[in-house]
From TrEMBL:
It is a multi-pass membrane protein. InterPro entries: CLS_N. This is Cardiolipin synthase N-terminal domain-containing protein. The chain crosses the membrane at residues 6-26, 38-56. It comes from Pseudomonas versuta. Residues 16-58 form the Cardiolipin synthase N-terminal domain.
Length: 73
């Protein structure tokens, strides 16, 4: 029973990491083809894709909040 919770927790963490990676990829200033390639790698190979992205993925996010209201504190 406890082993089941472990695997469920691990899957949830992996899904959250992959969503964060996809958000980072699509907010980068790389070309659309590059974004599509990274998306395919991360979606098709979730664990391995995350590891590859951590080593060779795009760095820096250029697009800020969608409106000035988001950045107000």
């Amino acid at each position: 029973m406890q082993t089941t919770y472990f695997w469920i927790g691990l899957a949830v963490v992996l899904i959250l990491i992959d969503l964060w990676i996809l958000n980072s990829v699509w907010r980068s200033d790389n070309a659309s083809g590059s974004k599509a390639g990274w998306t395919a790698v991360v979606v098709l190979l979730p664990f391995l894709g995350a590891a590859i992205w951590a080593i060779a993925g795009p760095r820096g996010v250029t697009k800020g909040p969608s409106s000035p209201e988001h950045s107000k504190g």
